[in-house]
Amino acid sequence: MTQEELKQKIITLSQGNPGAAVFLTTAMRTDTIFSIVLVDELERMGLKGSALWVMYADICDHDLNKVGRLISTVPRAKVIEACLKQDRSGKQLIEEYLGGSL
Fold this sequence. Notes:
The protein is mostly helical. The protein has one domain (3-98). 71% of the residues lie in helices and 0% in strands. The protein has seven helices and no strands. Helix 1 packs across helix 3 (32-45), helix 2 packs across helix 4 and helix 4 crosses helix 6 (76-83). The longest helix has 14 residues, at 32-45. The relative contact order is 0.14.
């Protein structure tokens, strides 16, 4: 995937949500390989817009390492369910899979 293709995917996944755009561009600037894997996984999960901001800000405390642990450890259905919670309760849904700490 080229940088331009990755940028287009970020725009699409962000759905105009500034927080989601910050999350994805931060990932891209930090580690291109990680961001490619992340974007592909987010597309598979169907997560976009505000759900991405919930993942990054509410569940993972703005920590890309935590995002990596989340998507590699927690079952996909639970990640989706947690990220769709707009009331900060999503973090509680995944704690059991991460030994109570993310």
